[in-house]
Amino acid sequence: QVQLVESGGGLVQAGGSLRLSCAASGGTVSNYAMGWFRQVPGKEREYVSAITWSGGTTNYADSVKGRFTISRDNNKNTVYLQMNNLKPEDTAVYYCSVRLSLWPHMNPAEWSYWGQGTQVTVSS
User: Does residue 4 register a pLDDT over 90?
Assistant: First the structure.
């Protein structure tokens, strides 16, 4: 059973940066796609970004393209999300996930394992 633990969230002013990390344990994730989603109260979980098993291909939601960068270190079983030029609308709980496939998918229902989430709050 894969377990995921996110870290790096916090409070930041608009225009600032944060780096989220997600460490996997209980199994290797190097053969699987990993991704980040976010959710605000009363809304559905929203796709943010994902990366293929090798790290060779990345994908981003239009709302974060050009500001966020996803990466992974398979030796450390860890995926990262570098978030720059943060905006108040980026405020959400950010979740890390693993999809039991080489390739990512934008639908949260296609993902198998989830972390507990880390809060990101961007003040204006």
Answer: yes
